[in-house]
Task: structure prediction
Amino acid sequence: MIRIGVDFGGTKIEAAALDAQGAVAARRRTPNPRGYDAAIRVVRDLIGAVEQEAGVAGASVGVGVPGSPSPGDGRIRNANSTYLNGRPFQADLEEALGRPLRLANDANCLALSEAVDGAAAGERVVFAAILGTGCGGGLVVGGALVEGRNAIGGEWGHNPLPWPRADEYPGPVCWCGRHNCMEVWVAGPSLARDHGGGLTAEAVVGAALAGDAGASAALDRYVDRLGRGLASVCNVVDPDVIVLGGGMSNVEALYDRLPAAIATHVFSEVFTTSVRRAMHGDSSGVRGAARLWPLEGGG
Result:
């Protein structure tokens, strides 16, 4: 009854074993080696380590990755860990492990985790946004992931910033090759770049809270842009709850300010969707990945 989840992040890779009640029986993490063959070995070894710690063998394995496998040939596309792109990551991992596994976009895993027993438990339509080194999203309806025909459901990070102002157009170039993607405006490094003072995003937020005018202005712009981007999501799927994950989800001011910033742009005179921090924090990815496999008998 143990399920293993792997969260393949841009800076770290984490594996955890969950028991039937969703409690973590074992957990390991290590820096992302930023190389394909090394990453295969790291994931294999992490899984072996958590299995040994949990006292199991041959457990089911789910993996959350940036980007997604192509429905055409199974190769990874759209990953900001660009060394994964064009590679048969699932097939190579299965060969290294000697067993089948399930693989999904990391933001989808966040959404699934938080919809099952996290910040959005009991809600029907849940949109989850990762605001970390990149920007991704996942959609759960009725407890099930909505990945879509082309397996790009929730990929709002590569939609353009809505309602751009003159000074925002054409916008910075994204790693994907397009201009003005939401990712270049609302990922953590984006706030630091927009501030322009050599501070990290965390330091910019701290300076804003301390009353620094330049940092406060940068945070204001960030909230406005994030609100515009989420409003465009709401106009399409109208979620009951928006859950935020990733480093920027730790900015408490977002939960006070975002509902009004979104409401300004939604196509409705009423807006009651709540914005919540991921209950499981940076563990949501591994929890959702583990749940890509149901328990025997359901769950």
